[in-house]
Amino acid sequence: DLAEAGEKPITMNSLAVQAGVAATTITRLARTDDKAASALSLDLASKIVTVLDCGIEDLLEVVEG
């Protein structure tokens, strides 16, 4: 869930519209395989953190292995 306590959740489609990218691009980020990581460019990350008003560290997770 992308929403913090008291905030309205945002749909993937709404995020795509507000970031100015295709909905399929956002959907690809939700995947749990290597294709998700390869879909996140710095440009897209910048757009997402702007829309969500969060930090880049909120988008990334370090996975060992």
Low-confidence stretches: none
Order of helices and strands: HHHH
| Rg of Cα set | 12 Å
Please report the distance between the alpha carbons of the first and last residues.
26 Å
The helix tally amounts to 4
Structural class: mainly alpha
The proportion of residues forming helix, as a percent range, comes to 40-55%
For this structure, the quaternary state is: single chain
Describe this structure in words.
- By secondary structure, the chain is mostly helical.
- It is 49% helix and 0% strand.
- The chain contains four helices and no strands.
- Helix 1 crosses helix 2 (23-29).
- It is globular and about 35 Å long.
- The protein starts with 11 loop residues before the first helix and ends in a 13-residue tail after the last helix.
- The mean pLDDT is 84.
Features:
4 helices; globular; 65 residues; mainly alpha; 0% strand
Topology:
Layout: H1 12-19, H2 23-29, H3 34-39, H4 42-52
Helix pairs in contact: 1-2
Compose a concise summary of this entry.
With 65 residues, this protein is mainly alpha-helical. The protein is 49% helix and 0% strand. The chain has 4 helices and no strands.
